Amino acid sequence: MKLAFSTLGCPNWTFNEIFATAKDLGFDGVEIRGIGKEIFAPDIAEFSDSRIDAALAKIKRLGIEIPCVTSGICVKDYGLDAAADRKAVEDAEKYAALAAKLGAHYVRILGDSDVMPRGEVSDERVAAALKDMLAAAAGTGVKLLIETNGAYADSARLAALVEKIADPGLGVLWDVHHPYRFFREEIGKTWENIGKYAEYLHVKDSVMLPSGVVRYKMMGTGDLPLQELIRLLKENGYGGFISLEWVKRWCQELEAPGIVFVHYINYMKKALA
Predict the structure, then answer these.
(1) Domain-by-domain residue ranges, the chain?
(2) Distance between CA 30 and CA 21 in Å, rounded?
């Protein structure tokens, strides 16, 4: 298994700071979810036509992979606004093209806009959107991953959606936190439902406060069954990335990335050993 962190956790770091830190701490990869003020990855300055070759050379020299380019594209409302639909498909095409240039295997797509499940989501709308985006990304060699997020943190529902679409260009990003926290799914049950589709993992720890609010915690200091997760992944031969998604960009009160990334890699290396 390989270890990465999402740039969501270090929103104020520069490109050079991100990749130098990944190298210094012994990470295998960096997941791109914005750099600095730019959250739309195709518009990141280092990935422009005039600068991407230098960026790729630096990344290669450091020995760091970019396994996933994580978009904010959400297809919950697909089919309700033709202009918005066209933009969503165009954005997916741009993300897939960028991922291919970066040597990334995956682009993340959201089926639901909320982390916690709220309101109705149409599987038919989401499936239609994914089919159009899969067609747009065809030929890039990049797979689209739909995340266990919102309504699709219900892993049985997500598995049914993926099976209905039945496209080899579609897989699952298993955010381990969401099914366990919001649907009370046991880790083993989630794997049973989506394990064969899960190609990339997000992890973070948390506790649920008496008020019903989730408080994110550094790995091993919350109550997610992380040791059970690692045992399950080993037993089932998972060899992909486990990426820390520390949502510092959205929650500035969280601990600083310089602290959290060090803690994460030390915790995970010990656990994996």
Answers:
(1) 2-272
(2) 10
Superfamily of domain 2-272: Divalent-metal-dependent TIM barrel enzymes (3.20.20.150)
Alpha helices in 41-154 (DSSP H): 52-62, 82-102, 123-137
pTM confidence score: 0.96
62/166 Cα distance (integer angstroms): 37
Kindly report, residue by residue over 122-174, the tens digit of the pLDDT: 999 999 999 999 999 999 999 999 999 999 999 999 999 999 999 999 999 99
Answer whether 145's CB lies under 8 Å from 108's CB: yes
Q: 81, exposed or middle or buried, with CB in 10 Å at 0-12, 13-18, 19+?
A: exposed
d(CA 106, CA 141): 9
Q: Are 27 and 5 in contact (CB under 8 A)?
A: yes
Element of type H or E holding 215: strand 214-217
Query: In this structure, are residues 150 and 112 in contact, taking their beta carbons and an 8 Å threshold?
Result: yes
Convert the pLDDT of each residue in 74-111 to its tens digit.
Answer: 999 999 999 999 999 999 999 999 999 999 999 999 99
Please name which of 263, 261, 244 lies closest in space to residue 201, comparing C-alpha atoms.
244
Could you give the CA distance from residue 87 to residue 97 in angstroms, rounded to a whole number?
A: 15
